[in-house]
Design brief:
7-stranded mixed β-sheet; 5-stranded antiparallel β-sheet; 13% strand
Length: 646
């Protein structure tokens, strides 16, 4: 595997660069491979390089078949994690040293390449072929034993943030082992790599930051974003998760330190949805922060200024969106994550017609909650149109869920959308959203302003609206008080209570509170995980309306169909696919979501439904349509199993 850069060219006898102090001598070998000895300024032997089949490294799968390693076979101008970076201490300070010279797949550098490193799993043959002798202890172990060892190590940590850091260290040193570990232990490790632990990681990101795992694009890069994107070593990007850090979970403005969210989301795209790691790009847009604590923190890693707004903000985001399309094409999925309400809705509306964009807080949350509600109907009876819904919280998540519920009711009953919306009421910080407040409401709240007398308190809204479903998206913990839950239980035999705010500390109520205050009658689900609850001799298994059920499979469906736009019907298709995966055994345990241990199977069905809808709507570009979309989705999924190198 070799990549020649701007200053290097290959001729019949050597590889040289006009500005490089390094020279390379070719040894004559059989046509199948050529070995290159790299000499540094002190003429010491650096490593061996394997060049095969048009500059690609071939891998031998365990079944004996061949595949090309996930590398760019074309010359590239970017450096990257496969390059040898020289920082020669012997060189004088004014001596020119090339920052990269040649991409290698052998020796010391191979052990530091997370995409190809296998640690002690390198075979005896591979150790000989790739100059690994002496760089590893003599034992050879399997990937399965490595997984067992890592899980034992991670379980020894008592603090969740320590487990998170251990997982991030593994991701940066051995990518395939990281994903193997996460896939095989998803129920245990999902709360570690994502919510709730990722919230604390973002809060302390400046202190725990070690190595960059994504692109940081700040106001300093304005006018140069196209070039900045080219600095990323991977070129075939299919999914970008981007945040500006203004509304991280329920924790508020964390500025540049919100990078933990795109990194975590894309880890789940790979582990749960099977999207290749090399096709994923985490991005943080840094326009400053209004968090005074961060601005005064000596370890803060972002711009030390108040947030840019208005035209300055809009111009930076527009340049980013244009550059993304120019670099990666029309079919790259851009997922907006944890933007503040005013920007989230504007960005989705502005770019929804020109780019393949998706907002997980608005659309992903809505899809997973709708799936839970559809499944819950099998426990309480009736159709969606038979129920009344009350929300605490009227931001991105609340209004997004409400709109998707209304769309599904309209679809099922042929009821006008405006009429379907009347079955849904929202409470914000100023009370029930009613028509008398219409002039002071933000645009995304206005569709939910109904004819009703003003109500200030949530418990009064419960008694006045008489909902069968109570959904919390407020980001404020313990707002579903005992009085509120008891009111829901008094109105309904089986009150449906979704406490969705993240992280756990911001949940509107705990699982134990929901079950005990409703005398064990509530159908409960939350945004962050809760342990099983025992009440009156019965064990209740709380559901988790985790967006991770939806967005990995949703993204895979868009990718495998070559979709160019996201349509609301695709979100409905994803909800229906997820709800269909809940079995009678799950219902018997009180669950309205399937277990996460089957998440790759679930994601394949969601991807198939989404892709089918893309083909039906004429938004798919990958032709012809596969006959069995579920099997095709499964075949597209990334496998973390080690490859064999020759």
């Amino acid at each position: 595997m070799i990549s020649l850069h701007r200053s290097c060219f290959l001729n019949n006898t050597s590889i040289s660069g006009s500005s490089s102090p390094f020279s390379y001598k070719l040894k004559k070998l059989p046509p199948a491979s050529v070995k290159v000895t790299a000499l540094g300024p002190n003429r010491d032997r650096n490593s061996g390089v394997l060049i095969e089949n048009n500059n690609t490294l071939k891998e031998i799968r365990e079944n004996g078949t061949f595949s090309v390693a996930d590398v760019d076979s074309n010359p590239t101008v970017a450096g990257g994690d496969r390059d040898v970076y020289y920082d020669d201490a012997a060189a004088a300070e004014d001596q020119l040293v090339t920052p990269w010279a040649i991409s290698v797949a052998s020796g010391y550098s191979l052990l530091r390449d997370p995409h190809h490193n296998k640690g002690l799993a390198f075979t005896e043959k591979e150790r000989d072929a790739h100059y690994l002798r002496g760089l590893l202890p003599p034992t050879v172990i399997s990937q399965e034993l490595q997984v067992k060892k890592m899980m034992r190590s991670i379980r020894q940590y008592q603090v969740p943030l320590q487990k998170y850091m251990a997982m991030m260290d593994l991701q940066e040193t051995n990518e395939r082992l990281f994903y193997k570990l996460l896939i095989d232990n998803v129920e245990e490790l999902l709360p570690v790599v994502y919510t709730p632990t990722v919230g604390e990681a973002c809060q302390k990101y400046g202190s725990i930051f070690r190595r960059p795992q994504g692109l940081f694009i700040s106001l300093k890069e304005k006018g140069k974003i196209h070039e900045v994107l080219r600095n990323w070593p991977q070129k075939n990007i299919q999914v970008i998760v981007v945040t500006d850090g203004e509304r991280i979970l329920g924790l508020g403005d964390l500025g540049c330190q919100g990078m933990g969210i795109p990194i975590g989301k894309l880890s789940l795209y790979t582990a749960l949805g099977g999207v290749r790691p090399s096709a994923c790009l985490p991005v943080t847009i840094d326009v400053g922060t209004n968090n005074e604590q961060l601005l005064n923190d000596e370890f803060y890693i972002g711009l030390r200024q108040r947030r840019a707004t208005g035209q300055e903000y809009a111009e930076l985001m527009h340049e980013f969106m244009i550059a993304v399309k120019q670099n990666y094409g029309e079919k790259v999925l851009v997922q907006f994550e944890d933007f503040a309400n005013h920007n989230a809705f504007d960005l989705l509306a502005k770019y929804g017609t020109t780019h393949l964009v998706f907002n997980d807080d608005i659309q992903g949350t809505a899809s997973v909650v709708l799936a839970g509600l559809v499944a819950a109907l099998k426990l309480v009876g009736g159709t969606l149109a038979d129920h009344r819904f009350l929300f605490l919280g009227a931001g991105e998540a609340g209004t997004g869920i409400a709109e998707l519920i209304a769309l599904e009711i309209s679809k099922q009953t042929n009821m006008p959308l405006e009429e379907a919306r009347k079955k849904i009421s929202l409470v914000d910080s100023k009370g029930l959203i009613v028509k008398s407040r219409i002039d002071s409401l933000q645009h995304f709240k206005k569709p939910w302003a109904h004819d009703h007398e003003p109500i200030q308190k949530l418990v009064d809204a419960v008694n006045g609206i008489k909902p069968t479903v109570l959904i919390g998206t407020s980001g404020v913990g313990r707002t579903f008080t005992k009085e509120v839950v008891e009111a829901m239980a008094a109105l309904n035999d089986k009150p449906i209570i979704f406490s969705l705010s993240n992280p756990t500390s911001q949940s509107e109520c705990t699982a134990e509170e929901a079950y005990s205050w409703s005398q064990g009658r509530a159908i409960f689900s939350s945004g962050s995980p809760f342990d099983p609850v025992e009440y009156n001799g019965r064990v209740f298994m709380p559901g988790q309306a985790n967006n991770a059920y939806i967005f990995p499979g949703f993204g895979l469906g868009l990718i495998m169909s070559g979709a160019i736009r996201v349509h609301d019907d695709m979100l409905l298709a994803a909800s229906e696919a997820l709800a269909a995966q809940v079995t009678q055994e799950n219902f018997d345990k009180g669950l309205i979501y399937p277990p996460f241990k089957n998440i790759r199977k679930i994601s394949a069905h969601i991807a198939a439904n989404v892709a089918a809808k893309a083909y039906e709507l004429g938004l798919a570009t990958r032709q012809p349509q596969p006959k069995d979309l579920v099997k095709y989705a499964e075949s597209c999924m990334y496998s973390p199993a080690y490859r064999s190198y020759r």
